[in-house]
Every structure is written in structure tokens, then in C-alpha cells.
Design a protein that fits this description.
six-stranded mixed β-sheet; alpha+beta; 8 helices; elongated
Length: 176
């Protein structure tokens, strides 16, 4: 990547720039989206362990009604799964429980959110929180949970390739 410096990049927090070459412009948490109807009589899980307990204690309620990314089809899903595996002591136990309940696999967050809101599934795991948050039309049917034990955050980034045909224009786009 080409180095790039400007007033806009200099004003970014340290975590949002790497060697003046890569710049983060969003922070988006991986969240759990839950059906209000399916959790109306239950305490909302705040951690992966609490989600494991809810799923394990209510298999008939959740069988075939959980969704998460298909890591074979979704790069973001793969990223979230690998980071969960590195940072969460309970992720593999959760994966085992979800697998035993015949979890549905998805390519993206939007379909999972829609399926929770429609009642097709009760839990969507590792959904981009920004996608769920902007669906205000669905908030009466969904809960959005950022796990308290650890929340994976994805940053969208930009860089200027070394062979960019118009690096000055790329710099202006980066500032935008």
C-alpha cells in the first residue's frame, strides 16, 4: 500500500491507522439477534455461556431455529468464527450446541435479521450489529445483543494500492 497523509488521516485515532497506509473508517460489532417472541418468557442471554444454557435447556424451541454464517461462503463469517475461537473460551461449546440443534447457515446478515424478525428463526449469531441497528422497522420484533464476555469488532478499511492509476484521487476518496 502507498503511504498517505492528510489532515483527515492525521485526525484519526491511533487504532484507525496503520503506518499511514491502512485506514479504518468503521467499527462494526458482531452481535446476537434474538426474536422478542421466542424470548418473551426468558431472560435474555448476555454472554455465550448464557446463550448455550438457553439453547441447551430449550432444544424443542430452538431446533432448526438458529442461524449463523456459512463460513464456506462468507469471508466475514469466517473472520468472526476464527476470532471467536481465539478470544472466547466457550465458542466451540456453543458451536457444538448450535450444530446439535441443526443451525441454519447463511451468507449474510440481512437474511438472518429478516428471518428472526419474521419468526422463521429465533436466534441469529454473529450478525453485523450495524445491519441490525438500522432495521428500526424490525426493532419491535428483535433484540440486539453485544455479548458481554467479548464482542468481536470488524473494521472496514481503505488503502491505496502501490499501482494505483490515480493516487491523488484515491487520497481524496480516503479523506471522504
Amino acid at each position: 500500500a502507498l503511504p498517505y497523509r492528510s489532515g483527515a488521516t492525521a485526525s484519526l485515532p491511533e487504532w484507525a491507522r496503520w503506518r499511514d497506509r491502512v485506514f479504518a473508517f468503521t467499527q462494526e460489532p458482531a452481535t446476537i439477534v434474538l426474536s422478542r417472541a421466542d424470548f418473551a418468557d426468558m431472560e435474555l442471554p448476555r454472554t455465550r455461556q448464557e446463550l448455550i444454557t438457553a439453547l441447551r435447556d430449550n432444544p424443542d424451541r430452538f431446533r432448526e431455529r438458529i442461524g449463523t454464517y456459512d463460513v464456506r461462503e462468507s469471508g466475514l463469517g469466517y473472520l468472526f468464527a476464527t476470532q471467536d475461537g481465539r478470544t472466547s473460551e466457550t465458542y466451540w461449546r456453543l458451536a457444538q450446541v448450535m450444530g446439535g440443534l441443526q443451525t441454519q447457515l447463511y451468507r449474510g446478515s440481512s437474511d438472518m435479521i429478516e428471518d428472526v424478525a419474521s419468526g422463521r428463526i429465533a436466534v441469529a449469531y454473529n450478525v453485523l450489529g450495524s445491519y441490525a441497528q438500522v432495521r428500526e422497522d424490525r426493532h419491535d420484533r428483535i433484540h440486539i445483543i453485544a455479548p458481554e464476555d467479548s464482542t468481536t469488532v470488524m473494521m472496514r478499511t481503505v488503502l491505496i494500492p502501490p499501482n494505483a492509476e490515480a493516487p491523488a484521487d484515491a487520497g481524496r476518496f480516503t479523506d471522504h
